[in-house]
């Protein structure tokens, strides 16, 4: 019962559990920092985050680099948290937050240098369609950056409900990226979270 509530709130945090879940997301600040080893954010002008959660990633990158970030999340609780956390960047016109489901959302024609998503892939049912949509949002040579726990890590995690999380093998995500037009795909294991990976692909 608790497992299911926790998992549902990891997928889509509610107002009631948003603050409790926050502790889980706090640990993910490290992931955003580690991502800077693989991507030179000085070279990025426009970025897009799918599932920004409480907005730690946006705050991290915007406070260190000059880029602009748009993002979408379908949790109203997270939308409000991310907005509060990044208000100064929103006022500077550097951050635009959308509230909605990325899978159904019609975005404008804007193109991005990078689309990144951390800890989201487990909730996406149609990953082919998902990758195609991301590809269409990228500039030529634009980058997709995915952070995900490997299947072994998720399978051993007794706190999550497997009816909420889809356990994808990292190789399955890599082949889906290739199939849908991404090139030069690289897989880097996190040095902090063993068995979790950064996947990078180029349009
Ligand atoms: C596990 S949290 C990860 C948050 C953040 N990326 C991190 O790593 O700390 C997943 C987030 O993605 C959002 N999310 C999941 N599926 C989504 C979708 N299809 N469209 C928009 N947001 C989604 C949830 O609302 C939640 O805030």
Word description of this protein:
The protein is an alpha/beta fold. The protein has a single domain, classed as Vaccinia Virus protein VP39 (Rossmann fold, 3-Layer(aba) Sandwich), CATH 3.40.50. Helices cover 40% and strands 24% of the residues. It has nine helices and seven strands, in the order αααβαβααββαβααββ. The chain has helices at 2-11, 15-27, 29-35, 56-64, 76-85, 87-91, 127-137, 151-156, 170-179, and strands at 46-50, 68-73, 95-99, 112-118, 138-149, 183-189, 196-202. It has a seven-stranded mixed beta sheet with strand order 3-2-1-4-5-7-6, sandwiched between helices. The protein is globular, with a radius of gyration of 16 Å. The termini are far apart. The relative contact order is 0.16. The structure holds S-adenosylmethionine. S-adenosylmethionine (SAM) is lined by residues 10-13, 25, 28, 51, 53, 72-75, 78, 101-103, 118-120, 123.
């Amino acid at each position: 019962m608790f497992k299911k509530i926790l998992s549902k709130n990891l997928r889509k945090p509610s107002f009631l559990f948003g603050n409790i879940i926050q502790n889980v997301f706090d640990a993910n600040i490290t992931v955003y920092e580690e991502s800077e080893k693989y991507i030179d954010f000085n070279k990025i002008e426009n970025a897009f985050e799918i599932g920004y959660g409480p907005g730690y990633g946006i705050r991290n990158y915007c406070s260190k680099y000059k880029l602009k970030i748009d993002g979408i999340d379908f949790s109203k609780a997270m939308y409000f948290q991310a907005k509060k956390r990044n208000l100064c960047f929103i006022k500077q016109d550097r951050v635009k937050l959308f509230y909605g489901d990325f899978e159904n959302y019609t975005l404008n024609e804007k193109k991005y240098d990078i689309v990144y998503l951390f800890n989201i892939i487990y909730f996406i049912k149609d990953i082919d369609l998902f990758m195609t949509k991301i590809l269409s949002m990228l500039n030529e040579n634009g980058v997709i950056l995915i952070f995900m726990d490997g299947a072994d890590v998720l399978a051993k995690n007794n706190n999550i409900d497997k009816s909420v999380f889809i356990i994808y093998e990292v190789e399955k995500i890599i082949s889906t990226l290739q199939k849908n037009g991404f090139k030069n795909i690289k897989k880097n294991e996190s040095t902090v979270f063993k068995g979790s990976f950064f996947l990078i692909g180029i349009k």
